[in-house]
Amino acid sequence: GIHLAPKEKVNIPVLFVPHAMKMYKAEVIVHVRKENGEKWTSEFSGGSNKDLNRNVFLAESGEIEGILWRYPVHGIPEAPQQKLVVVRCRARQRVEQRVEMLLMGVVPDATAVTDATNSDMVDRDNSANTQEVKVTDGSSATAEFLYELQYQSNEIRSQLESLVGMHLVQKEWDTESGIVTLIFNVVFAPNKPMRNEATLMIQWTAGGAWKFPLQFIATEPEVDDVINIEAVGLNKESIVGFKLTSQTR
């Protein structure tokens, strides 16, 4: 019963309140008809085009009585952002750190949707670092997850991507509490002082998503050597030489 003047706009609010960490699908349908009851003329027959026939209402005369616009809606629950994990290392050194990620609300009866790996999930084609992991509860029930390390900008990606590595070392699924535990081994080998952030994005193929912020801090490196210069006398120069070797081309 909403009246619209020519070129007038209408906002359609969509509220999403998920009860479980899985994808929900719906469809918003907008049905338009002329206020005065007139119809649109058309030269097509009702069975000639299935897609067109699905989006119009035809009168007995073959004229178009109403037009439908269909907007598919995919609701993907996202858990609140987790506590910041800090990985600290001195420049020109290497550190390995175990990081535990807890995924809340993984319910066994949430079945994965058939197109869960489409553009609504992690885009594997554009994310070469995306990894897949399967977690079982000890029986036939299996939960599949995708995870990748995301960066705020291409500049941060270029600084961190070759210095950071993540490897899944342990996984566990407690179906009673709905908690999946993923333990990663994080390797950080900075070559210079820096402070950058990244986000570990984990998505369940049934629709849930979790974000874990990571901060990588590289402090000043150790002193390479101490150079001692002995004076040969007042107002006379003393010179000492030392070699520097580049580690790359």
Automatic annotation (TrEMBL):
This is CFAP47-like immunoglobulin-like domain-containing protein. One of its GO terms (biological process) is sperm axoneme assembly. InterPro entries: Ig_CFAP47. GO terms for cellular component: cilium. PANTHER family: CILIA- AND FLAGELLA-ASSOCIATED PROTEIN 47. It holds the Pfam family Ig_CFAP47. Signal peptide: none annotated. Residues 78-219 form the CFAP47-like immunoglobulin-like domain.
